[in-house]
Amino acid sequence: MNESIIFEISVKSFQKGLGNLLKILEKAELHAETKKFAFENLLNARLFPDQFPLTKQIQIACDTAKLCVSRISGKEAPKHDDTESNVSELKVRIQSVIQYLETYKESDFKTVSEIKVSQPRWEGKYLTGFEYLTHHAIPNFYFHLTTAYSILRHNGVEIGKKDYLGEMPFKI
After folding, report:
1. What domains can you pick out in the chain, each with its CATH number?
2. CA distance 118 to 54
3. With contact defined as beta carbons under 8 Å apart, do 158 and 31 qualify?
4. So what's the pLDDT on residue 120?
5. Which residues, including other chains, have CB under 8 Å from residue 4's CB and lie 6 or more apart?
C-alpha cells in the first residue's frame, strides 16, 4: 500500500476539512454578532429532531479524524471529554486535533493493510486499516462535517461551497 497516498487521503484531508470548519465557525461567530444573538443559540441547533446538534457534529468530526489515524497506524489518540459548551472551546478542540494530525508522517501507515480495526458495535467483525479508512472513517468524517455546515447554513450563516471546500491546490 502506498503510504504517501494513505497519508494524503487521511491526515491531509482531515486537516483541511477541520481547518475549513474553523473558518466556517468564524463566519458563524460574525453572523451571530451582526444579528445580535448569542452564538450559543447555534450550539444546540439541529436539522431534524433525531439528529445530533451542532456541538456533537463537531465533536464527532474531530473524533473520527483523530481515531481513524490512530487506529490505522497503531498510535495513541488524545482524549476529549465532550464538555465543550461554547464556540471557543469547540475551536480549541478542532485545533488540538489538527495539531495531533501534524505529528504524523507517511511512514506511520506502513501496516495499514495488515491492521485490523474493530469496534464493540461490530460484534467481533473487523475491517483492515485501509477498509476502515475508505469505507467508514472518510464517509463518517464528511457526513458530520457536512451536517455541521448544513446546520449553520440552515440558520442563516452566509457560507457556501467555497467555504466548505476551502483552498484548492491549483497549478498554473
Report:
1. 3-165 (1.20.120.450)
2. 27
3. yes
4. 86
5. 106
